[in-house]
Amino acid sequence: MSYPKMLSPLSLGFTTLSNRIIMGSMHTNLEEQPEGFQRLAQFYAERAAGGVGLIITGGVSPNETGVLASNRAILKTEQDIPPHQLVTQAVHQYPTKICLQILHAGRYGYHSQLVAPSAIQAPIVPFVPHPLTDEEIEQQITDFVNCAKLAKQAGYDGIEIMGSEGYLINQFTSTRTNSRTDKWGGSFENRSRFPLEIVRRIRASLGMDFIIIYRLSMIELVTNGNNIEEVIALAKALETAGVNIINSGIGWHEARIPTIASSVPRAAFTEVTASVRKHVTVPVVACNRINTPAVAESILQNGDADLVSMARPLLADSHFVNKAQANAADTINTCIACNQACLDHIFEGKIASCLVNPRAAFETILHFRPTSTPKNIAVVGAGPAGAMFAIYAAQRGHHVTLFEQSANIGGQLALAAKVPGKSEFNEFIRYLNVTIKRSSVELELSCAPSNIQLNHFDEVVIATGTQPKALDIPSTSELPVFNYIDVLQDKVDTGEKVAIIGTGGIAFDVVAKLTSTDTEHLPLAEQSKKFAEHWGIDLSNKHEGGLTLTDTDSSQESTITMLQRSVRKPGAGLGQTTVWIHREELKRQKIKTISKANYQKISAQGLHIENRGKHLILGVDSIVVCAGQESNPSVNLQHLTVPYHHIGGAKQVKKLDAMLAIQQAADLASRI
Fold first, then answer.
1. pLDDT (tens digit, 9 = 90+) per residue, 341-364?
2. Which InterPro entries match (predicted)?
3. Chain-centre distance of CA 351, in angstroms?
4. Are 164 and 216 in contact (CB under 8 A)?
5. Which residues, other chains included, contact 179 with Cβ-Cβ below 8 Å and sequence gap of 6+?
6. Among 84, 210, 374, 379, who pairs with 461 as Cys (CB 3.0-4.6 Å)?
7. Which residues pair with 326 in a beta bridge?
């Protein structure tokens, strides 16, 4: 067995988990959809069928004040039980346990009925919370106990109490949000009273044969947050109060430090979890940016944790555990930590899914059933759209030939993988290569098919992607003008003084390429150390909130300038969960941005622009163009005599990304 510790069972005394992998809590927005619980049941059932030992649901509120937003799931009365039974019955077809996460948003709710220990407004919410009275606090505890009782009636094996990430319980334990002077505030003993009372009363009410997980805020990454001594003290008190498992929570949602983005090294925060595990005897869970069996096994073998929690990796591949069990880790569709289809969708009010697996949360809708009329299909272009279409269409029984004019598959994925902080794209390329090799797809590399060849197929799918738009600015000099592809592929020397035309995602990639130090070749521990130094994180958590006391800001101005014609913020089209990281990096690097730039000409002096009525000349060594893309017109449609389809960049460039390209590929493959 390649992963003996990860795949070994874990006894909790009254029950046993079949392995050490937990599907961590993640809201999908399915709960709020018509027939959403039926879809949710199938979503979790597929992960249970895939071998995961324990599932923790998305957060469910114990009452109306605790919801994150209107119409979010509440478990308060027996009338709320039946939908949850659909979920537990579906999961219990398999040897998988499932726990309901009880989450009270506190001041993080996006509605006007917020409550919190103190009337301190969250920086990410426009409402001031009502400070709970002593009587109201007691009612909140009662509601938590009631919710846990209903969860047991619904068939859940246990509950997870959400005590981290800055939600209500965490708001009680931290002086950042708790300014009370009564028995619920002041000393750490008083600030810990609220979570400990919840645990004690749930345990007393439901007995010993019910799993209680507590998600503990291990490192808060905000000023006036708890330090390691307080975290350990609470962990020990929680064990005494009756929890079976302590899960790790990393950072508050208002923290200005990335914790799960692709730029965060794998297992970057495991050190914090390990430091707490030494002081308790109940199992402790490691989490955040753990996306391969090898990393999970290493954490467990090193004794840093007893279990490993993964949320997004089980969106990407529901059979993660089964594939590891079968010594087929190379076939796992690995989470690339892009956030585009999962967390970004939640913020947009959409159903969470996965860029690399569009079936995630759409298991009852998107199918690749065997076709009754197999066709000979040519696919031109082996980027994300073409490669995924070929895989899905072949899975259905079509005869697929995949043509790629370059020597490798991947297209824009291979380009993205060259950006510091985006090496995870290499995992997706590996998955595509392995899956195509194991499928019936005929792959023709270094081959641009002629129309004569294409006309011998029943249908043609054109997935030729995009190409950079040319810069249309008059030039009277030999000042180098590069496209972003040449820069990302290290084909050119931009010099130190660079003007970047464009402020979209590709422009940010170019900035990262020009300014970031590549650490992804280093051991994970060294990567984590450098990441912590860069973002001012104290992984020992000795300082309050786990933030270093040193100022890492540099006084040196950057020699890079980003320009855009519009007046929007740079990166306005990027996802909410990652765009702030890019903007924060611009501030840290002191990169100048110019909006409302009208490009006039390029001369020996530099780039001439008109900006808000002023004429400016940027004296630069080179100009990098990131001003958009256009479809690659490499297939001559006039000479095609068979039906054809466009997907991905060949179909559109507006609002195009890998997620949309793969969605189009999946949709076409499901119905062709």
1. 999 999 898 999 999 999 999 999
2. Aldolase_TIM, FAD/NAD-bd_sf, FAD/NAD-binding_dom, NADH:flavin_oxidoreductase, OxRdtase_FMN_N
3. 14
4. yes
5. 117, 118, 120, 185
6. 379
7. none
DSSP structural state of residue 134: H
| Model confidence, pTM | 0.95
Q: Which residue has 């104290």 as its token pair? A: 538
The three-state DSSP-derived secondary structure of 627-661 is CCEEECCCCCHHHCCCCEEECHHHCCCCCCCHHHH
- Tell me the pLDDT band of 517, cut-offs 50, 70 and 90: confident
The Cβ of residue 63 has, within 10 Å, a number of other Cβ atoms equal to 18
Distances in whole angstroms, Cα of residue 117 to Cα of each of 147, 502, 636:
20, 45, 66
User: Which pairs with CB-CB distance under 8 Å and at least 24 residues apart come from 262-265?
Assistant: 262/336, 262/337, 262/338, 262/421, 262/422, 262/424, 263/420, 263/421, 263/422, 263/531, 263/581, 264/288, 264/289, 264/337, 264/531, 265/289, 265/519, 265/520, 265/524, 265/527, 265/528, 265/531
Which parts of 285-380 are beta strand (E)? 285-286, 307-310, 376-380
Q: Number of helices (H) and strands (E) in the chain: give both, helices first.
A: 21, 27
CA distance 290 to 310: 7
pLDDT at residue 217, rounded to an integer = 98
Distances (CA, A) of 291 to 228, 329, 332, 337, 624: 26, 11, 10, 9, 34
First to last CA, the chain: 40
CB 296 within 8 A of CB 21: yes
Looking at every residue in the chain, the average pLDDT score rounds to 95
Which one-letter DSSP state was computed for residue 121? -
Give CA–CA dist 32/668, Å, rounded.
Answer: 28
Q: What secondary structure letter does DSSP report for 494?
A: -
Taking a C-beta distance cutoff of 8 angstroms, is the pair 344, 76 a contact? no
Give me the domains of the chain, ranges plus CATH numbers: 10-347 (3.20.20.70), 376-466+632-671 (3.40.50.720), 470-627 (3.50.50.60)
DSSP reduced 3-state for 159: strand
Tokens of 452: 């004569």
Angle at 386 between CA 381 and CA 388, to 5 degrees: 150
Run of H or E residues at 482 = strand 481-483
CA 68 to chain centre: 19
Q: Which residues are catalytic?
A: 167
Quote the tokens at residue 505.
Answer: 């995602």
How long a stretch of residues is the chain? 672
What DSSP designation does 65 have? G
| Nearest residue to 261 via CA among 577, 584, 505, 659 | 577
Two tokens, residue 373: 């009329």
CA dist 325 → 320, 350, 398 (Å): 9, 33, 30
630-656: pLDDT as tens digits: 998 888 898 899 999 999 999 998 888
Cα distances (angstroms) measured from residue 60 to each of 29, 75, 215, 405, 529: 11, 7, 14, 50, 35
Residue 487 CA: distances (Å) to CA of 68, 207, 475 = 43, 62, 20
CB 247 within 8 A of CB 216: yes
Token duo for residue 343:
């967390």
* Residue pair 630/489 in contact by the 8 Å Cβ criterion: no
Beta bridge partners of 650: none
The closest alpha carbon to 177, from 215, 125, 139, belongs to 125
| 580-589 tens-digit pLDDT | 999 999 998 8
Segment 166-225, tens digit of pLDDT:
999 999 999 999 999 999 999 999 999 999 999 999 999 999 999 999 999 999 999 999
- 526 alpha-carbon distance from chain centroid: 23
Give the tokens for residue 48: 């249970």
Closest to 265 measured CA to CA, from 305, 221, 295: 295
